[in-house]
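In the previous chapter we treated chains in isolation. Here, by contrast, the input contains two separate entities that must be folded as one system, with a combined length of 1074 residues.
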Amino acid sequence: MRLVGSAITIAVLILGFAAIAQQTGPGSSEPPAGSPPSEAPPANGSQPQVDESALRYFASQGDTRRVNAEIARLRALYPNWTPPSDLSQLSGAAAAPPDPIVERLWNLYREDRIAEVRAAIAERQGSDPNWKPPEELVTALETVEARRRLLNASDTGQWRTVLSVATESPNLLTCTNVDVLWRVAEAFARTDQPGRTRDVYTYLLTNCSNPAERLATLQKALTLLPEQQVADLLQFERRTGEAPDDFSSIRDELARRRVERASLDGKVTASAEDLAAVERLIRNTNEAGPVLILGWYNYHHGNPARALELFKTALDRNGGAKAAEGYAMSLRALERLKDAEAFAYEWRERAPENMKIYLDVATALLSQDPPPRLESPVVARIVTAVTAQRFSDGAQALGWYSYNTQQIRTARDWFRTALNWKPEDEPSAYGLALSAQRLNERAAFNAVVAQWRGRSQRIADLADRTNPALRRQSAPVPPRADMPAGETAPSVAAGYAAPRQVTVERVEVEQPLVRSEEGIRRRQTEARSVLGRSCAITRNPNGLSGDAALTRGWCLMEINRPLEAVFAFDQAIAAGSSRTREEAAYGKSLAYLRKNLTSQAATAAAEAPQTRERRVELGASILTQRALAAYRDERFVETLIALSERARLVPEQNDLLLIRGWSYFRLGRYDDAEKVFRAVQQTGYSEEASVGLNAVREAKDPVPQ
Amino acid sequence: MTIRVRRSAGFLPWLFATFLAMSSMAYSQTLSVQTLTIAGTISPADWEAYRSRFVEDNGRVVDTANGNISHSEGQGYGLLLALAAADRRSFEQIWSFTFTELLIRDDGLAVWKWDPKGKPRVTDRNNASDGDLLIAYALAKAGQVWQEPRYTSAAQKLARAIGNNTFGRSGRSMVLMPGASGFGAGDRPDGPVINLSYWVFEAFPVLAILAPEYEWNRVWRDGVLLLQQAASGRVRLPADWLSLQNGLQPKPADGFPPEFGYNSLRIPLYLLRAGMTDMEWLRALKQRWSTENEGVAVVNVVTGQIRERLTDQGYAILPAALACALDGTPVPEALRTFEPSLYYPSTLYLLAKSLLGEKYPQCVSSAAP
């Protein structure tokens, strides 16, 4: 019988909860009894079906007292339940006429107006000291009050109160109050008694039959118990009967967690079943979570290609920054560094991890051997990110990249920058030493050696090998193929043998420089006199003699077709005498400058030895364009690098000095900015310089509000 | 310092005799708590006016000036006033709410704040020691009056929890901390911080009987001493919130206005209700509160500047009660009829009126002018 079952249920619970008394009461150190899942549960399906059989039985016996007790009990369990109206027929008019006040009290009780029931009892007792409320009502009230206190206490995190109320009101602890059982289980967990928590869940899964509540019980267990204990609870799954359980979602969750743990540790392997469970989760949901887990699992277990697919899926499912990080890392693992850089660049601002992977990928890209051919916008954005993040590894990589593409001055500056950001970075110091050596900057070279000789064998070796007789200062210096194998830096030789696109800074300057343009004009005029305008007809310059190609090149410059001029100059370089080659390389540089292809211009200038005058002229032009471009893009550090490099070749004129001043200003280097603006001002009146000085004054001394 | 305990005929004795030594000048004073009966001292009409406005059917006492929240203090006052009105029905109602909604803390104290708009409704699970004292005191008195062991046993539990969790040491003093946590020397740079209006003086001897293992007597006595110290400055008013960082030199606590405010105005009422009329400070206060002077006001205790004058009936009755208790001055006619406004002044009014009805009927009898 159901009632009997309930009574046993309660008894079992009281037994199981001996621990509560132990915990809240004084003393006893006796270990609490468990609640063995031995009771055969009445598996009669879905719940809010109120079992009225006992009630009907007592009514048929005419046992009013027990009828009332059972009504009270059922009311406590199901506040919305009303007793059946046909009970009196069963009892055959045996029941006494109902007391109207008791009827009113039960009505209030049913409406959950507990304080008013209490008040009415007190009032009645005030006028009639001998009157006593029905015992069932008192029990029902106490049960409801206990339930409220238990709920309030658990909502407020007062777990010890939860347990003491449960101990005092064991009749709350039944399958009809699963919510109470869950809260008691949580209270045990929150008071460091996970064993008791498991006991409550075990009790519930053994005795309570509602499948939804049984599943929810395991979901609660997932949040409170160690996974092994949750796995142990799965044994209570009922596979047969009217309302069988389906705990597969719990199994999947456990599998998901195991794969998740393994996904971050290449040494831990997940079982095929677990992996299959996660695959199933991926198929059955639209969430990115399981996809990410499997993505990381594949990434860390040597399958970046599969990882890449999964991260792509995760991105499609709005997996966000984490998915992007995984995608970029997978591309890198697949050595698709250009793709990785381009992708990671798009996501770099989303989270610190995304910026990190971008910088890492960019560094890896630059550090390839041989150095890759990179579009200038790619290098430019790497420069911007590395500078903004003060990422020393990136600065070092830019140093090697510059070095290996024969931009030794730029390389030197990047190595110096890297050392500024990370003074103990030996590879950067080594790069700086190599660069200084290539540039014949003895003082700089000696300074690095002096600082690092004791700490770096290879820097010391470099110093010892260097011939004290300096090479004549002429660029480019022949490549040194003596970099120790296995170093951080790619082979030095790689660069010079096939000069590459030189793109360490962004280049898109519009107005070429007056000084260069004068040179162009002179030669154009000469060329025109030879050819007239015949060069306007497109012709393949191949096959022309060196001098003819050179003339044609200048002619094309005259009619402002610089790219075709480049081809002509190329032919001149290929076929011409040394003087022609020099002239053609010069022309080619100017052609590139006109197209704002500064870096190509720099490369072209290196294709044939130039006179010092021309080297200076071209170098200054190139650097001016770089400085202006960097300034326009608000890359002030690079602006200053380019300006300083240029200033070593030619004096800095006022307009560039102002650019320098404003760059300092924008970088917050107000004192430097002030010095520069003042210098400009002293060369004569300069409105711009005054504006600059005012700005510096304001920035240094903000006007108080 | 010595304590004499005398027995007075017939009633449970709670007499403190305290010699309070102060730094340079030493003076002595005899103070004792006289027990109130309370039950039956408020008229059904006055109580009905209060109950219908501030007590909901579920037993919740509503603070109408504070977003209709409820708090442990309000429940305590509600219980005390229901007892004063001898309304056992309402008492039971208010207790039902207090018990199921507030008395849920692990340490046995009441959570202090309950907001009908909150989720969960308990929006601050901390306790407020004055609320705990008031609830326990009302339960203890009701248990006696109505011979209801449920009340007495609940009072005893709560009294133990108070003694266990809110009595704290400050130097050589033993004080009532405003809450079980957050106010101690380790909790705030200026801790310990106390609030003298949390000493419901009349409750101490009653709860001492229920939980004699705690030092109620000493906390009561040190409260009196601290009050005298705090009221010894130029302005002669204690700030609501006091730092005891300097031991017996209480200073206004950080983060609170240095004011004698809504909290502290209860102190004279509590002193009168406890029968501690000998306290010299009450005379000075009566002077300040007299209508010729500034009246009841929120006052900066450092500068003496008035921030707000309080004219509601519930505040105005305080100087009237003081004048009655000290000089036998009858309560002015205008204050004799209850005109409930907001929860707090209405509560103070009925507490004062209950006291006048029990101890000073001559001040409020119709024969008086």
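The first helix of chain B runs from residue 44 to 54. The interface with chain A takes residues 57-59, 88-97, 99-101, 103-106, 111, 120-122, 125 of chain B (CB under 8 Å). Compare these points with the single-chain example from earlier in the chapter.
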